[in-house]
Specification:
Keywords: Membrane, Transmembrane, Transmembrane helix. The chain is mainly α. It has eight helices and two strands, in the order H-H-E-E-H-H-H-H-H-H.
């Protein structure tokens, strides 16, 4: 298949999946409000609507940018360097462009959107399957679809976008990063919503609480000093903590886990910012010291030249 045909087909499937997915999810959420189910715990309904609206707007804007005339489908590169024609590369710090090459630096700030697009289509298909199974209370299939979607989103975050190598907020593919992280946290929210709708469970014991905390901490910390994923997971935990519940143990578990994850994410973010500032200060001190060391030699040379 030709590249242009492949990209066009992917875009059409992405838009179609996006429309069906969000329309079906909106119907399911509205039906849950009209006929609430007996659950062990569930996210707060208002927070679920807010999360749904936010990820809907982000995905719509991201898909709209796929049809932007400035999108360069032939551009390949990660967040640190741009690609040149004929396979050449030029780092952003360099201003030297080889003769006969076209400078594509900054031409497309979302070069990895095309690599993420197949995972986007897969995730939308899984969400459609979840909505269908949720309507018929097939919770086992619901968990299966959500687990597949979660794996696809995590693969996109760490394999395609190299999220674990971030040294802070991403400088490129920003919108794609945001879409992936919002979709990931929304899938986790739906996954815990599905688990809460299963047969009545007793309050969690210490081992279950620690397992849940470990999962959220690992997911929040593995994306590096970028706190976006961590903050979104904190919102998920607080949404579960203030939502409807039957056993108070789950409510208390989600609340204290949210505070723990928030503290860890904030500490990691502040330490990374402090380390970055320290590195910047040390570099400036080193350059100032080297310039001061060169002053005597320059002065002596100028003095000799005057004689």
């Amino acid at each position: 298949m030709e590249p242009d045909t492949y990209h066009t087909t992917l875009r059409r499937f992405a838009v179609l999946g996006f429309c069906i997915d969000n329309a079906y999810q909106g119907y399911v959420f509205q039906h849950d409000v009209q006929r609430p189910r007996s659950v062990n715990y569930a996210p707060h309904p208002h927070s679920l609507y807010v999360a749904f609206a936010v990820q809907l707007v982000l995905q719509a804007w991201w898909l709209f940018k796929l049809y932007s005339p400035g999108t360069r489908q032939g551009f390949e590169g990660d967040g640190e360097e741009g690609a040149l024609a004929n396979g050449g590369k030029c780092e952003h710090g360099s201003d030297l462009i080889p003769t006969g090459h076209i400078d594509l630096r900054g031409a497309d700030h979302e070069p990895l959107r095309w690599d993420f697009l197949p995972m986007f289509v897969l995730g939308s298909s899984c969400h459609i399957g979840w909505s269908f199974c949720w309507s018929y209370e097939e919770y086992t299939l619901c968990r299966l679809f959500l687990c597949i979607s979660a794996v696809a989103q995590l693969y996109s975050m760490f394999a395609i976008l190299n999220g674990s190598k971030n040294r802070g907020f991403p400088q490129r593919n920003i919108m794609t990063h945001l879409v992936v992280k919002c979709r990931t946290t929304f899938v986790i929210l739906l996954l815990w919503k599905t688990w809460g709708a299963l047969d009545p469970m007793p309050p969690p014991n210490v081992a279950q609480q620690l397992n849940n905390l470990s999962f959220f901490l690992i997911l929040a910390m593995c994306s590096g000093p970028d706190p976006t994923m961590g903050f979104l997971l904190v919102l998920v935990l607080f949404s579960l903590g203030i939502g409807p519940f039957q056993a108070p143990g789950w409510h208390q578990t989600f609340v204290w886990m949210g505070w723990v994850v928030l503290c860890v994410v904030m500490i990691d973010w502040l330490v990374a910012a402090w380390a970055k500032d320290s590195d910047g200060d040390s570099d400036s001190d080193l350059s100032l010291r080297s310039s001061n060391e060169n002053l005597p030699s320059l002065a002596s040379k100028s003095l000799i030249g005057s004689y």
